[in-house]
Amino acid sequence: VQLVESGGGLVQPGGSLRLSCVASGFSFSSHYMRWYRQAPGKERELVATVSGDGATTNYAHSMEGRFTISRDNAKNTMYLRMNSLNAEDRAVYYCNGAHYWGQGTQVTVSS
User: Fold this and answer.
1) Rounded to whole angstroms, how far apart are CA atoms 35 and 45?
2) Of 12, 62, 107, 109, which has the most beta carbons under 10 Å away?
3) Mean pLDDT estimate for the chain
4) How far is CA 30 from CA 33, 57, 81, in A?
5) Is the separation of the CB atoms in 1 and 66 below 8 Å?
6) How far is CA 78 from CA 14, 63, 86, 111, in A?
7) Confidence at 62, pLDDT banded by 50, 70, 90
8) What is the 3-state secondary structure (H, E, C) of the chain?
9) Quick check: 74 pLDDT over 90?
10) Of residues 75 and 62, which shows the higher confidence score?
11) What are phi and psi of 73, to 5 degrees?
């Protein structure tokens, strides 16, 4: 099983990024998938969840309206579109599914 995130980087406040998570080694479409994040000195927190068919999504309160989680089961890939980024969004973002974790991708928001 492998989960590989990409798409992180440095963005200015108010900017946008799209993260990707490519999954392999398990039945991707059968599993809920989640994005988590961990800021420096803080515990890992749930960002968003998407059902196996992509029809149901849930978000942490502070991300709702700014972030959009989605998936493409044909590509075994999950996405996180992040808009209106601010300094509090700085963190390592992790992909989670089928009890496995990716290695994370760093998001830094700074002018």
Assistant:
1) 9
2) 107
3) 97
4) 9, 15, 22
5) no
6) 23, 17, 22, 28
7) confident
8) CEEEEECCEEECCCCCEEEEEEEECCCHHHCCEEEEEECCCCCCEEEEEECCCCCCEEECCCCECCEEEEEEHHHCEEEEEECCCCHHHCEEEEEEECCEECCCEEEEECC
9) yes
10) 75
11) -70, -25
Mean per-residue pLDDT, 66-77: 98
Contacts of 39 (CB under 8 A, 6+ apart): 88, 90, 91
Q: Which residue has the tokens 């800021």?
A: 39
Residues in the chain: 111
Amino acid occupying residue 47:
V
- Confidence category of residue 34, pLDDT binned at 50, 70, 90: very high
